[in-house]
Amino acid sequence: MNSRIALLSSTGGSVVKTLLRNNPDINLDLIITDRKCPAENLSDEFSIPHVRIDEKSNIKFSDKLLEILISNDIDYVVVFFSRLLQGNILNNYNNKLINFHPALLPDFPGMNGFEKAIRNQKKFIGSTVHFIDEGMDTGKKIIELRYYLKNECKDKLRHIVFSQQVASLNEVLKNLKNNITLNILRPENENENENENENTNLDLLSKESLLIYKKLIQSS
């Protein structure tokens, strides 16, 4: 039986929407939000059930989220979310809450990670997929994609990171739906590539996910 997967979002949902439009074989079983946001529109466009949790307290929100996940037989949660999860959900869904962060970790955690990375002017920008733990973007990494800076404008760099996230989401969902275990990123794959390749760590992606990435890059 395929895994049942929920989306937890407090954002516009553009990464998820782009993937669902580009790969009709990918689907989600539930959308959960904590506020009125464009991600809720995915429910109508792709016929996905939606629940909004109106709780201001992080612990109360997390407890309610856990109830909903269990009652809907959800196995995994992909997360595009701006709040910390707390309490029992971290134990009940250990290594099953998967966050998509638009910057490299641990250098640029938290909100506005992409903007922090641009201001810092390091050699690379990139994106990270990691399991959620009790900290702020401190969980074990699953996928980390890097791009070597070459004086591109901010909008182009934002599109590159966006494309990385779409491809990474495809990789994660494809594996989870097929009950393939997500592996922890090996330390040697986290090191900055000194030969200044344009893209690094793309070998972490399958052929299908890589094709999605290249298609999005070419469309910019």
Counting DSSP E segments of at least 2 residues, the number of strands comes to 8
Number of helical segments?
7
* CATH topology (level 3) name: Rossmann fold
CA radius of gyration is: 17 Å
Biggest pleated-sheet summary: 8 strands, mixed
Q: Give me the secondary-structure category.
A: alpha/beta
- What is the CATH architecture annotation? 3-Layer(aba) Sandwich
Task: Provide the CATH top-level class.
Answer: Alpha Beta
Strand order of the largest sheet: 3-2-1-4-5-6-7-8
User: How many structural domains are formed by the residues?
Assistant: 1
Q: Taking all residues together, what is the mean pLDDT?
A: 92
**Residue windows where pLDDT falls under 50 for at least 5 positions:** none
Distance between the termini: 38 Å
Could you explain the architecture of this structure?
The chain has a single domain (5-185, 202-215), classed as Formyl transferase, N-terminal domain (Rossmann fold, 3-Layer(aba) Sandwich). It has seven helices and eight strands. The protein has helices at residues 14-22, 41-46, 58-71, 89-92, 113-120, 154-177, 207-218; strands at residues 5-9, 30-33, 50-52, 76-80, 97-101, 124-131, 141-148, 199-200. Strand 4, helix 4 and strand 5 form a beta-alpha-beta unit. It is globular, with a radius of gyration of 17 Å. Keywords: Purine biosynthesis, Transferase.
